[in-house]
Amino acid sequence: MNVAGARALVTGGASGIGAAVVARLRAAGCSVVVVDRSESDIACDISDESAVVDAVGAAVSRLGGLDVAVLCAGVGGMSPILKMTTEEWDRVIGVNLRGTFICLRECARAMPSGGAIVAVSSVSGFLADRLMAHYNVSKAGVDMLVRIAARELGPLGIRVNAVAPGTTATPMFAPTAQLPGYQEKVAARAALGRVGTAGEVAAAVVAMIELDWVTGQTLVADGGVSLFSPIDIQG
Fold it and tell me: Among 177, 203, 210, 222, which is most buried by a count of CB atoms within 10 Å?
């Protein structure tokens, strides 16, 4: 798919990776509607089903149809399992997994002539991060949702993929600056020796939109941080 002239909806497009995706798509000649909780074309909490239904309907009306959906909206959180409340678990799962499912379903329903959907997952979907059980589980769920959606929606001409960022300089990552040495340690563990940028992840997202013979896949865009093994003592 050539994104020039395409009609796209981007959730979580007001900041971070989502904003970088919006900028890249618009620069390529794509018409984009941003759906976010604030500072967006359409305000929407994606954990609210009726709000998502209305937001997608409004976006389709503005665009005159829908060819592309990029599902970037998400939240983070940290808590040990023994202290995690069910409310905290539900908050993260409700946005990252349930909300992504609702958005995917509604966007697919709005693509009767086919299209491309890309969800933003995370390397945390296949790694085990202490204090992040709810976040990691939500992202693992997104990866499987993408695989199943790709099988079900393929016959309708809809491709569904995911991009899994690692540590990326976004507002969600910014609070780690308060942890002495944390960001430097993460950068050192990446094969490419630094933290990624939102623009670099956005480039991977657009690539997945444009690859017509790729569906049901999760592309890891993490600069090699997920290649790190604490038992590798070489070098």
Answer: 222
| Domain-embedded: residue 1 | no
The partner residues of 218 in beta bridges, in order of sequence, read 162
* pLDDT tens, position by position, 21-33: 999 999 999 999 9
Structural domain contains residue 12: yes
Please report, for the domain that includes residue 29, its CATH number.
Answer: 3.40.50.720
Asked whether the beta carbons of 101 and 42 are under 8 A apart, the reply is no
Residue 135: active-site member: yes
Q: Which tens digit of pLDDT belongs to each residue from 150-186?
A: 999 999 999 999 999 998 988 877 777 787 888 888 8
